[in-house]
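Note to self: keep these together.
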Amino acid sequence: MGTPAPPGPHRHPRPGHPPIRPPADEPGLPGRCLRLDEFPRQAPLVQKSLRLLTQGLREQDRVALVTYAGASRVALDSTSDKRAILAAIDGLGAGGSTNGEGGIRMAYQIARSHFIDGGANRVILCTDGDFNVGTTGRDDLIALIEHHRASGVFLSVYGFGMGNLKEATLEQLANKGNGAYGYIDSYAEAQKTFVQNLAGTLVTVAKDVKFQVEFNPARVAAWRLLGYENRLLAREDFNDDTKDAGEVGAGHTVTVLYEIVPVGTEVPAAADAHRYLEEKQKSKIRNQKSDGELLFLKVRHKLPDGDESRLQTFPVADAGGTWEKASPDFQFASSVAAFGMLLRESPYAGTADWDLVQRLARAGKGEDPQGHRAEFLRLIELARSLGPEPR
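Structure:
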């Protein structure tokens, strides 16, 4: 846990949480039970992706295939036979209308019929975005997903190709299903998702993960969270175990970035000041000697099969770090945040431009054994070539 921050009038602490893993002496996952609900237009890429996923399965893992083109049907009943799975994948095609709701319902039925206690029971929806919720409407489909989520069957959603991708709908379905959402537009991206990150794709190690940060008003005049607009919770929801939150897959880490304004620096009008303190209280606190603590971080999470959250707390001191001493991970995360703000033409981008984004990304590239950060540098070049320079 640390708070590296670049020099300047405003700084960017980065609370980070390591992956939460099951204890080694637990039985673990005796049988990951995977369900695939599949039928996109991008059939060749989907088939290649599913072959990659199948190659990483263990002997005790089981797969069923459901298609929903025209009418929902079971293309492969639940089996652990890899040859049968690969043959069924090779037989998939694309065409007809898309009754996504019917396919999901059928996939859930199979998942419940072959439910593995202690396993990772999951429906995976692969779609090119030409997806409808049938005749019952989105609310009923979400209720279905939430019902099966509570019973231990999670839903992950992957969009393939380009064009008619309804990203907001697909991401919402994954969020409601305690699963992951991803976009796969190439074989390289499929390898990252279904080979390099296979455990995180299939296995949720912590659900309803929540972060709450309280800044020390003796050191921080104002703050602003970068991103996470679609996952914000009310302050009182942090301790409410009935409120849904995010999930963490095996081997995954979580990064949260804040922009802070140190005490003694002019506070921008758009920044989030300490809303629960009156001016007299702020003045009194600022006149007190600071103990060096910058913030207090609280983290809640539930085990995948649990309903009661566990609380962890971390007081974080200001180590007085400089940008030059910041870790490559922090520098790279800063570049990604700035990149996102430029793409969205965020009013909070400040003086950020493509040169800054590239400089930060190069500084944080590190060893990059899988080439993911090099790919990000190429995306920066592509984005820069497609649009005007930021103002």
